[in-house]
């Protein structure tokens, strides 16, 4: 190669030829591209040898001067011009120059294109039209001069720079018809032979043979020039040489392997290290292997849109850079036609086929050529190889799917050591078959860092938090992220706005087409459309798989139980039992192969959320969503239980709970009204679950909807489900405190069951039981008791014997009714009979019915305060349940909660504390520290500690811990925290904190009143607490105001006749008496006694306390001038008789009543003690008869706030006993027994 060198001379810049340089001594140089003028005007090699004078006289010297000066400006001293650097008189040198020229242009640092027919950009007239019409674009040799150099600059006739081939790329591509990729330096073997020939088709050369010679570098071949042979012969020799080179396996481009890849490198590609490195390792290009023969075939499989093709593109470009001698051939394999098209194009590009023989099997030609040892190493990329039937003919392949070739396409994939194959597929099964069952490479979704990188490259102004939200919504799926980024860029919107669009119309947004690098233009780019193709292919390949996919698209996309699919196949694809499992396994194999579903260790199936949404969209487009919604409804109805949840085994319950998330999506579809029987049943099942978990409002709505559907059915379609739904509604209303609705629903169910089944049927019996429960909750005890007796009689008639299970249930219900009414002896006698009858039936000691009967009997003993009898029964129940269910089971924990107060009542401190703390530990293990259930247990134990007056400090510490934990639970910072704070105030009071507690209570009242309202249950509870604070501190003036508020508030909340009202009236009477407001005190006490007798019974302790206080107040009122002594003594006599009958003659309350009477009559009476005496057991004479004949008792001065001295015990011990018995406060048993449900307030909060 010979160059011109620019050097300084006496007359300025001078140019001289260098010697002929070899490749190793060639300096950096520029090169000139121009169009030749007349030969006489061009400076030749001989002109430069003969001296500058002659050369300068020619017009072409201006081009030499321009090139030299421009090279100097660019820091170059050497340059090359074809007119004067080649000795054309030397045929050998000329031939070498013609064959080397492409590489000389490629190696040049700069290529200057001088355009004498283009005006300066500073001229008034625009230069672009002249540029487009320039002669330079029509000449043959300038083709390689445009393509080969890296830097090509265009200059106007005055030497002004117009731009380079990169800045003018679109304009140059438009003028030449050459693809931008070829102009900017993409390897030419990526362009077919036909395309490269087309670039020169309209170009002209001065000598006709030069048309062929100017293309030598374009095709990388070498032929000697023979001027005079003509263009046709020159072109024939060129094509023959190309064909011979291909046949010999030589490269058609200098130094590098062939690169037949239809995609440019993606500058925004985010490297996925795991699959990328795995490809390198399996194909032998990893860090520890370089021979490329480790495994000849590798498959990338994964869900459509996870980036398999992008990874493959990135890999082939990495391979081209690191192993340039390896050739790459990319084949689209989404259809048979595209596979054939790729092979045919390859055969034409490499001139493998004889154009005069159209019948040749071009696929076979390509395969055989690639398998030849002398063609070098190749990587064959088979992209989108999803359909197995394209590659492997099966007996079920329709004839119209067959290609013109009789052989399956898989047979055309080369099998030889020097050809590796990389397959990308959505279908794992197809990938496995193509790579001969070797280990495939799974491609999943991106991790968080990769997703962030992808979005930040496209949305550089977004924040990490916004990008994180978007990746979460799109579940890090690369295609969805790329689609989102394109949409955001095109519409100039923020990520937050795009997320709002997704929330409004998720499927529509992801169905929007967009442009993306590295995506096949013949395949839809939108996520939804991408998967639609796979869905259609799945349904065609395996109809059952398509139907299962459609069914799963209706229900929840996560944790899909396999039992659902088993039921589906049985109902909608009936097969013989011996083939059903095989068909299901095969269909699931197809779905898993396409990555539509994945299987967990528990055998449940999961769908990608976006696949799930796309499936729904696909079903809507096919008009099949209603069909599969109806099928899903039927399946869920079949597998859901139609029984009470508390009667289901724990293991079965856990399994059934896993079904629940799949119900709401089905019930949300419009198809439910077309299948009312199934829908009604499913609604009822779900309501049963919600009822079991105390979500009563939701259970109510679903049950009412279910009942509405059942009632609208024709008579022949109605079933027992109507009455079952009505029965559940009764108990839902009861739990909500809506007792009137409960009673009306129960009455209606009772009437329907009588009409449908008759008066003496199991259905009617069940309806009567529900009605009886409603009466009880309404405090209509007489009607409830009468109905329970009728129920027992009906059960005996139906069963014919007391041994009948229904009869025993009715007897148990009646015993429970007696317990509620405090008819404890009747309850005890009846339940003991039930327990004995169950034993007579032969039920074991640990049978559930036996244990339940013993449990109720222990509760009756506990209500009678016969704790010694209650304890062994409660322990027996606890031990059986602990063995059966374990210590951490909710039932076992609740039994611990029952044992603790029994031990407390028996003053067994160690056992009481032990069971209380054990219950807390078990509940915490079961549900965790901050769950409401262990906190409720802890609160119960804290309350017990305080009410037993033995563990004040421990109780306060527990309440503080409950309070601290409760404030951490989200959603409970107002209501529950205030309620707990109110209790905390009360128990701090019990520990002796006076002023501070009162201030905290008043502060809580104001906060609760503002946050929750004056009539909120928690606000009213704080009123009760503040009243108690003043009462316990003997601050009766302040207490009176709050006690009145308390009574009025509870009446508004609970109703006039609620069981919680009497003891509040008693406390109000006590306060009024201490303030000498005797008329008010007597009125309050009389109201307390009347109400307590009515709602609690004449034998209830509150009733007896009220009667004693009324008697005492009446007597004190007498001493103040009221004159009601006789009534007071008669009341005390009544108290004595009731107490003796219900509590026993030796009970301390009985002894206290006797002592009051004796003191009034002036008798001496021994102090109460725990032992029995004859005096204590003797009957009192009717004291009331003596009262009439006695003289009035002398008036004694009574100090404010103390009872009459005539009734005051004589020592401090007696005073303490009296205070403990008569001072009105909630008792231990009443603190944990819900006696009635609210009539006006639905259950709120926890």
From TrEMBL:
In what residue span(s) does the Heterokaryon incompatibility domain sit? 29-115
Coiled-coil annotated spans: none
Segments of skewed composition (Polar residues):
1192-1210
Going by the entry's taxonomy, the superkingdom of the source organism is recorded as Eukaryota
Signal peptide positions on this chain: none
Quote the InterPro entries the UniProt record gives.
HET, P-loop_NTPase, TPR-like_helical_dom_sf
Region span, Disordered: 1162-1246
Task: Give start-end positions of Basic residues composition bias.
Answer: 1236-1246
Q: What is this protein called?
A: Heterokaryon incompatibility domain-containing protein
Which organism does this record belong to?
Schizothecium vesticola
């Amino acid at each position: 190669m010979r160059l011109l060198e620019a050097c300084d001379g006496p007359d300025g810049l001078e140019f001289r030829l260098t010697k002929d340089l070899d490749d190793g001594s060639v300096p950096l140089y520029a090169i000139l591209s121009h169009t030749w003028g007349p030969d006489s005007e061009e400076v030749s090699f001989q002109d430069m040898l003969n001296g500058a004078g002659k050369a300068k006289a020619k017009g072409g010297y201006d081009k030499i001067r321009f090139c030299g000066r421009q090279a100097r400006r660019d820091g170059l001293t050497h340059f090359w011009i074809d007119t004067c650097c080649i000795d054309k008189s030397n045929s050998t040198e000329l031939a070498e120059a013609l064959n080397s020229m492409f590489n000389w242009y490629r190696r040049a640092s700069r290529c200057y294109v001088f355009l004498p027919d283009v005006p300066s950009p500073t001229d008034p007239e625009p230069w672009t039209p002249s540029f487009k019409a320039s002669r330079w674009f029509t000449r043959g040799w300038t083709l390689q001069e445009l393509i080969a150099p890296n830097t090509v600059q265009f200059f106007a006739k005055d030497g002004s720079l117009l731009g380079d081939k990169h800045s003018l790329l679109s304009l140059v591509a438009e003028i030449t018809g050459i693809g931008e990729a070829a102009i900017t330096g993409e390897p030419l073997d990526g362009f077919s032979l036909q395309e490269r020939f087309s670039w020169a088709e309209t170009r002209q050369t001065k000598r006709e043979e030069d048309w062929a010679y100017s293309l030598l570098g374009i095709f990388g071949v070498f032929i000697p020039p023979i001027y005079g042979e003509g263009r046709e012969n020159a072109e024939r020799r060129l094509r023959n040489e190309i064909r011979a080179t291909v046949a010999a396996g030589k490269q058609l481009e200098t130094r590098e392997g062939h690169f037949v890849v239809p995609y440019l490198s993606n500058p925004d590609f985010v490297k996925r290290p795991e699959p990328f490195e795995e490809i390198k390792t399996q194909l032998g290009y990893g860090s520890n292997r370089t021979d490329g023969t480790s495994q000849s075939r590798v498959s990338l499989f994964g869900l459509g849109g996870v980036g398999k093709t992008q990874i493959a593109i990135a890999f082939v470009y990495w391979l081209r850079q690191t192993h340039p001698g390896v050739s790459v051939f990319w084949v689209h394999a989404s259809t048979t036609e595209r596979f054939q098209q790729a092979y045919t194009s390859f055969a034409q590009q490499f001139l493998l086929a004889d154009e005069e023989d159209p019948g040749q099997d071009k696929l076979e030609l390509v395969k055989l050529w690639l398998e030849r040892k002398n063609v070098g190493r190749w990587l064959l990329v088979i992209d989108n190889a999803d359909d197995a039937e394209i590659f492997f003919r099966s007996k079920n392949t329709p004839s119209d799917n067959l290609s013109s070739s009789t052989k399956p396409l898989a047979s055309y994939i080369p099998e030889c050591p020097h050809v590796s194959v990389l397959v990308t597929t959505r279908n794992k099964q197809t990938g496995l078959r193509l790579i001969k069952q070797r280990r495939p490479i799974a491609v999943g979704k991106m991790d968080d860092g990769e997703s962030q990188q992808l979005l930040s490259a496209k949305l550089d102004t977004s924040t990490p938090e916004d990008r994180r939200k978007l990746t979460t919504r799109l579940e890090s799926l690369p295609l969805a992220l790329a689609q989102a980024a394109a949409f955001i860029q095109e519409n100039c919107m923020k990520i937050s706005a795009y997320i709002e669009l997704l929330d409004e119309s998720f499927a529509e947004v992801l169905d929007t087409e967009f442009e993306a690098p590295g995506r096949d233009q013949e395949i839809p780019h939108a996520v939804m459309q991408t998967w639609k193709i796979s869905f259609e292919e799945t349904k065609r390949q395996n109809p059952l798989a398509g139907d299962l996919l459609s069914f799963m698209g209706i229900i929840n996309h996560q944790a899909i139980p396999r039992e659902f699919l088993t039921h589906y196949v049985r109902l909608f694809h009936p097969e013989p039992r011996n083939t059903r499992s095989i068909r299901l396994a095969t269909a699931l194999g197809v779905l898993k192969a396409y990555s539509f579903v994945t299987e967990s260790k528990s055998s449940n199936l999961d769908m990608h959320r976006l696949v799930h949404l796309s499936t729904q969209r696909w079903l809507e487009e096919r008009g099949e969503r209603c069909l599969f919604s109806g099928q899903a409804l039927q399946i869920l109805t079949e597998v859901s239980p139609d029984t009470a949840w508390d009667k289901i085994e724990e293991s079965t319950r856990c399994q059934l709970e896993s079904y629940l998330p799949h119900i709401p999506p089905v019930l949300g579809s419009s198809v439910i009204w077309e299948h009312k029987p199934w829908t009604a049943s499913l609604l009822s099942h779900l309501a049963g679950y919600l009822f079991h978990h105390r979500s009563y409002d939701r259970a109510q709505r679903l049950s009412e909807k279910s009942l509405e559907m059942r009632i609208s059915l024709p008579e022949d379609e109605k079933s027992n489900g109507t009455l079952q739904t009505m029965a559940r509604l009764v108990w839902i209303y009861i739990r909500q405190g809506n007792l009137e609705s409960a009673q009306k629903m129960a009455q209606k169910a009772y009437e329907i069951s009588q009409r449908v089944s008759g008066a003496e049927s199991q259905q009617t019996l069940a309806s009567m039981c529900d009605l009886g429960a409603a009466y009880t909750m309404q405090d209509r005890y007489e009607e409830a008791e009468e109905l329970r007796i009728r129920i027992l009689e009906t059960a005996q008639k139906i069963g014919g014997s007391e041994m009948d299970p229904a009869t025993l249930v009715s007897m148990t219900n009646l015993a429970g009714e007696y317990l509620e009414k405090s008819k404890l002896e009747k309850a005890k006698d009846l339940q003991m009979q039930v327990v004995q009858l169950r034993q007579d039936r032969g039920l074991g000691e640990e049978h559930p019915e036996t244990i339940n009967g013993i449990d109720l009997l222990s509760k009756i003993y506990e209500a009678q305060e016969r704790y010694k009898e209650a304890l062994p029964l409660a322990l027996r129940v606890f031990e059986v349940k602990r063995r059966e269910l374990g210590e951490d089971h909710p039932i076992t924990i609740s039994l611990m909660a029952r044992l603790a107060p029994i031990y407390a009542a028996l003053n067994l401190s160690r056992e009481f504390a032990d069971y209380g703390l054990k219950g807390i530990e078990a509940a915490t293990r079961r549900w965790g520290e901050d769950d409401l259930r262990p906190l409720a247990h802890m609160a119960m134990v804290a309350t017990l500690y305080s009410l037993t007056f033995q563990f004040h400090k421990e109780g306060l510490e527990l309440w503080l811990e409950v309070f601290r934990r409760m404030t951490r639970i989200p959603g409970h910072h107002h209501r529950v925290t205030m309620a707990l704070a109110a209790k905390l105030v009360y128990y701090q009071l019990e520990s002796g904190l006076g002023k501070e507690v009162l201030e905290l209570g008043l502060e809580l009242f104001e906060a609760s009143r503002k946050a929750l309202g004056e009539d909120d249950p928690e606000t009213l509870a704080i009123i009760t607490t503040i009243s108690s604070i003043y009462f316990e501190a003997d601050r009766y003036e302040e207490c009176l105001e709050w006690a009145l508020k308390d009574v009025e508030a509870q009446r508004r909340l609970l109703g006039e006749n609620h069981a919680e009202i009497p003891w509040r009236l008693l406390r109000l009477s006590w306060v009024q008496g201490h303030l000498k407001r005797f008329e008010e005190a007597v009125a309050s006490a009389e109201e307390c006694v009347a109400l307590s007798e009515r709602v609690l019974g004449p034998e209830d302790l509150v009733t007896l306390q009220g009667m004693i206080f009324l008697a005492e107040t009446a007597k004190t009122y007498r001493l103040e001038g009221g004159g009601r002594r006789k009534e007071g003594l008669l009341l005390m006599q009544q108290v004595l008789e009731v107490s003796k009958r219900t509590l026993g003659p030796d009970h301390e309350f009985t002894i206290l009543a006797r002592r009051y009477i004796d003191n009034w009559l002036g008798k001496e009476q021994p102090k109460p003690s725990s032992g029995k005496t004859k005096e204590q057991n003797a009957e009192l004479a009717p004291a009331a008869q003596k009262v009439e004949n006695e003289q009035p008792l002398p008036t004694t001065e009574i100090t404010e706030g103390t009872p009459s001295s005539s009734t005051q015990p004589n020592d401090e011990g007696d005073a303490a006993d009296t205070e403990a018995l008569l001072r009105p406060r909630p008792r231990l048993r009443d603190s944990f027994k819900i006696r009635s449900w609210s009539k006006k307030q639905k259950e709120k909060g926890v």
